Amino acid sequence: MSMFWTIWISVITLGLIIGCYFLLRWCLSNKTGVAEGESMGHEFDGIEELNNQLPRWWTIMFYMTIVWGFIYLALYPGLGAYEGIWGWKSSNQNIQSLEESAQARIDAKEQGYLVEYDRELDFAAEKFDPIFEAYAQVPVEELAKDPEANKVGQRLFLQNCSQCHGSDARGQNGGFPNLTDNDWLYGGSGAKIVETLTLGRKAAMPAWLDAMGEDGIEEVVNYVLSLSGRDVDPQLAEAGKARFAACAACHGMDGKGNQALGAPNLTDNIWLYGGSHRAVTETLTYGRNGVMPSFKKTLGDDKIHVVAAYVYSLSND
User: Fold this and answer.
1) Where does heme c 1 bind (predicted)?
2) Annotated binding-site residue? 205
C-alpha cells in the first residue's frame, strides 16, 4: 500500500477515535446553564428530564473502548501499510499460484508472522491428515462402499469439481462429462479415475476443415450420426464412411472409441459436446481441446483417493 493511502487511513482512523474522546469530554461538561440534578424544564407523560451526568459505569466503558482501540491498532494491522507489533495477518497477500502460496507460508514462519489462514491450514492438517491417510490405504473400489468416506469425498467434490461437472456430477454440454452414467473416455476403474484426477486430461481432437472441406465434413457428420442409429442421408453417409478412415486412428473402424487415447465411443448416442447435426459439424470443423486440470497440487494424493472413491460410487451403486 502506498504512503498516501497509509496516511489517509491513519488520519481518518485515529481522528475518529480521538474525536470520540473529545465528544465524550464535551458530553461530560455542563453547558446547559442548569445546575446538576435540576429540571431541564421538559416533561412528557409525567416524566421530567433532569440535568444529570452520564452514568459513571457507561463513561468508564466508553473510555475503555477508546483505550482498546489504540491498543488494537498497535498490535494488529489496520493503519495502511503498518503491520502491527504482533505481525498478525489474515492471509498471505498477492498470491497468484500454489507455488507462491507454499513459499509465502515458509517465509511467514521464518519471519515470525502470525498468519491466521496458515494456522487454520496447520490445524486442519493435524486433525484430518491421519483420516485421509487411513482412507488412502483402502482400494478405491472398496472405499467407495464406505458411507462416511463418500460423505467426505462428496464435500471435496463439491468444493473442487462441481463448478464443471455440477453438484449432481451429471455434467453439461460443452465438454464436461456426466460422471454417473458409466460412460468413460479414459476408463472408469478406480485406478483410472485416480490417474485422471492426478494428472489431468487434455483433449486433442483436431480440426478437419482444411483436410476435408465443408462437403467432406458434411459427409462424415452423416456417417457418424448413422453409427448411433440416427436418420441421415444414406448417400452422404456412405461417402462419409470412406472418409471416416482418417478418424478411425483414434475412434476405431467401428467408431467405438479408444479409452487409451480418450477417444469417445460414437455409437452410443452419448455426446460430450452435443450430438445434434450442428454440434457434430462444429466438432469436426473446429476440433475440441477441452482441459481437465490436475488436482495433485490442490488436493494431494490422499484426498484424490477419497474423491476418486466417491466418483466411482456414483456409477457403481
Assistant:
1) 161, 164-165, 292
2) yes
Cα distances (angstroms) measured from residue 91 to each of 97, 115, 297: 14, 5, 19
pLDDT tens figures, 82-117 = 888 888 888 888 888 888 888 888 888 888 888 888
190, 139 Cβ separation under 8 angstroms: yes
Domain count for the chain: 2
> Which element (helix H / strand E) includes 239?
helix 234-243
Predicted confidence at residue 20, as pLDDT, reads: 95
* Residue recorded with cell 483433449: 203
> DSSP of 3-31, one letter per residue?
HHHHHHHHHHHHHHHHHHHHHHHHHHS--
Name beta bridge partners: 288. 205
Rounded-to-integer distance, Cα 88 and Cα 90, Å? 7
Banded pLDDT at 132 (limits 50, 70, 90): very high
> Binding residue per annotation — 305?
no
Region for 63 from its dihedrals, namely left if φ exceeds 0, alpha if ψ lies in -120 to 50, beta otherwise: alpha
Q: What is the CATH number of the domain that holds 235?
A: 1.10.760.10
Does the annotation list 277 as a binding residue?
A: no
Contact 166, 272 (CB under 8 A): no
Strands of the chain, DSSP E: 39-44, 47-50, 88-89, 114-115, 201-202, 291-292
The answer to the question of whether 212 is labelled as a binding residue is no
Same domain, 150 and 163: yes
Residues 6+ positions from 183 with CB-CB distance below 8 Å: 177, 265, 268, 270
Residue 215 sits in the same domain as residue 258 = yes
| Residue 192 structural domain | 138-202+293-314
Taking the model in full, what pTM does it have? 0.75
CA distances from 47 to 32, 41, 50, 52 (A): 19, 11, 10, 14
Is residue 42 annotated as involved in ligand binding?
A: no
Is the pLDDT confidence value at 1 over 70? no
Contact indicator for 153, 127 with CB cutoff of 8 Å: no
8 A C-beta contact, residue 144 and residue 312 = yes
